[in-house]
Amino acid sequence: MSTTDNRPVFLNLLRIHQPVTAVLSILHRISGVLMILSLPGLVYLLSLSLEDQAGFTRVAALLGSLPMRLLGVLFVWALSHHLLAGIRFMLLDFDVGITRMTARYTAWLVHGLALMTSLFAGWVMLGGGT
User: Fold this and answer.
1) Which pTM was predicted?
2) Are the beta carbons of 77 and 36 closer than 8 angstroms?
3) Any residues with CB less than 8 A from the CB of 48 and at least 6 apart, and which?
4) What pLDDT digit, counting tens, does each position of 44-85 carry?
5) End-to-end CA distance of the chain, in Å?
6) Which residues of 92-118 are buried (b: 16+ CB within 10 A; e: fewer)?
C-alpha cells in the first residue's frame, strides 16, 4: 500500500458538523439567493395588480391561497435572516463582537430572531392574527 492513495473518498455530508457561525453564513447566502430569485415573480404580480381592478382581484386571490401564504412566510424568513445576518456581518467588519464566544452568541441570536419573526408572520398570514 502506498502512502499517496488517490482513490476517491466517500464524503458523508450528514456526518460533518459545521459550527453555528458557518451555518449562519451559508443560510445568509441561501436567503439572499431566494430573495433575488423571487424578484421577477414579485415584479410580475405588482405589474398585474396595477393594470386594472380585475388584475388586482386576481393577485389578491392568488396571494390569499395557502401555498402563496406559505411562500410568504418563507420570504419573511429569508428577508429577516438576511437583514439580521447582514447587520451582524457589518458589525464584525467593525470589530464589534469579534471574539469567538460573542460571535457564536450573535449567530444563535440571529437564528432565533429570524425564526421568531417567521413564526409570527406565519401566525398572522395563516389566520391566527385575525
Assistant:
1) 0.84
2) no
3) 55, 58, 59
4) 999 999 999 999 999 999 999 999 999 999 999 999 999 999
5) 70
6) eeeeebeeeeebeebbeebbeebeebb
> Cell for 110?
440571529
**What domains are there in the chain, each with its CATH number?**
19-36+66-125 (1.20.1300.10)
Cell 500500500, located at residue = 1
With a CB cutoff of 8 Å and minimum separation 6, the contacts of 75 are 34, 35, 38
Q: pLDDT band at residue 2, thresholds of 50, 70 and 90?
A: low
Which of 88, 78, 89, 84 lies closest to 118, judged by CA? 78
